[in-house]
Structure formats: structure tokens, C-alpha cells
Amino acid sequence: MSEHSSSWTSVDQIAGEVLSCTRCVLSETRTHAVPGDGSSTAAVMFIGEGPGQNEDEQGLPFVGRAGQLLDSLLEQVPLRREDVFITNVVKCRPPGNRDPEPDEVDACMPYLRAQIELIDPRVIVTLGRHSMLRFYPQGKISNDHGRIISLGKRVLLPVYHPAAALRNPRLNETLVQDMKRIPEAVRESLLLRSSAPDGPAVRETAVAATANSANDTNGSTQTPLAEPSTDETSGDQDQMTLF
After folding, report:
1. CA-to-CA distance for 112 and 195, rounded, in angstroms?
2. Rg over CA atoms, the chain
3. CA dist., res. 243 & res. 12, Å (int)
4. CATH fold of 12-215
5. Judging by DSSP bridges, how do beta strands 123-127 and 85-88 pair with one another?
6. What does the pLDDT look like over 128-175, one tens digit per residue?
7. Residue 196: pLDDT band by 50, 70, 90 thresholds?
8. Is the N or the C terminus of the chain less surrounded, counting Cβ atoms within 10 Å?
9. Is 4 left (phi over 0), alpha (psi -120 to 50) or beta?
10. What long-range pairs does 101-109 form, CB within 8 A, spacing at least 24?
11. What is the DSSP string of 97-140?
12. Which of 70, 51, 105, 81 is nearest to 239 (CA)?
């Protein structure tokens, strides 16, 4: 398989390669690879860290309890699952829902990069700490959730992983309010594309300037898919807990 995203011309083609991928040891223990699901022209793309047990069994992302909560959150935006694209950093379940190893992330990264390139979403919503750190390595989910962060021609909106709210119901309302910022994030991305289409924007975002100060929404310049730091633990039985 080519390392270059230019070798793929459609999201379906990427999915086909993911389903037969043997690039890392996760292929030896998976039931099904989970390429992702949704619209190939989505304006909003959701990225978790990796499939959990239910996802491994069904070959679809976010189909367990965390996925049911995600569906409910989408309805409140409102968004339909078929209008967004949902995927993970790694496409196969790590045994026991452990964190993916660096070589496993590296093996899957060409797929994720190509999905982002072909879908070209305006907003990337990262679900949980680990996914956020791939894009925003100096971030901290407890401080940066709900922020609208400039990423060149698109924006990043980190939110808590739905599994975190299942474990800690006090996070439910926070997650609802953060998800409701998606329309603002889409509007901000339109401004970024018109003002800085060829590189990261170095400015305070227009939305952030008027947002609730409790969200701490100053814009930032970031390089996508950087290696994360590690300062918290994870693990969940539905979908990997990424916070």
C-alpha cells in the first residue's frame, strides 16, 4: 500500500484498504476493522482514538453506549449522523481497549490524513483527550474543551468523549453545550477559508471574540496530527475512553 494519500481517490477506496490492512499487530486480534462511516462530503468530521468492543464486532464507529449518547448529542445540535463523518485515529481495536502504541498510530495515520484530505471538513471535532492531542499536543481537555481553535483553513473543536459523560454524569451538560458550538465553528471556518486559505491563521477567531469567556476560546495556530503528550489514563468497554 502506498504511504501517500494521493494514491487514494475516494473515501470508499480508503475503507477497502483499511478492511484488509495488515500494517500493524492490531490486525491480528481484530474482528473487523472500522474505517469510519458517514458522508464523504461532510462539513463536520468527528475523530475518536480507536474502536471499542462493539465497534470491533460490528465494523462501525460509535455503536455502543457512547455511540448512543453521541447520536443524542447530534440531535441537539441538530445534525444527522448520515450528514457527518465519524472515524478514529486507529482503525482496529487495541486489545483490552488499551491506548494505541506509537507504531500502531503511525501505521494508521496515512488513512486518517487521506480521509481528512478527501472529505475536506470545515470542522474537526475531536472526541476525548487522546484524539485532541493528535492535533493540539499542548492542550488539556479539562481546559480546552469547547474551544474553537484555528487549524489553517479549518477549525478544531475538542470535546469530552461521550464515554466520559457516561462515567461522570456531571459532564453531560458540558458536553451538550460544547457540541452546540458546532454551528459557530462552521461559521468560523468560513471566515478562515476566506482570510487564510493556504496556511494556519494567526489571529483570535471571530467567534472566540464574542464567546462566553468561560470557554476560553482564543484561537491558536497548530500543526495537524502531531504526537501527543501523555498525562492521563484511559480505557472503556464501549469505545476507548479518550479523556
Report:
1. 26
2. 17
3. 30
4. Uracil-DNA Glycosylase, subunit E (3.40.470)
5. unpaired
6. 999 999 999 999 999 999 999 998 889 999 999 999 999 999 999 999
7. low
8. N
9. beta
10. 102/227, 103/24, 104/24, 104/25, 104/26, 105/134, 107/21, 107/23, 107/24, 108/23, 108/24, 109/225
11. GPPPPHHHHHHHHHHHHHHHHHH--SEEEEESHHHHHHH-TT--
12. 51
Of 24, 16, 20, nearest to 95 by C-alpha is: 24
Task: Read off the C-alpha cell for 211.
Answer: 464567546
Length reported for the chain: 243
Here the cell at position 68 is 448512543
What letter represents residue 115's amino acid?
Answer: Q
Provide the residue ranges of all domains of the chain, joining segments of one domain with +: 12-215
The residue whose grid cell reads 480507536 is 50
- Here the cell at position 112 is 486518517
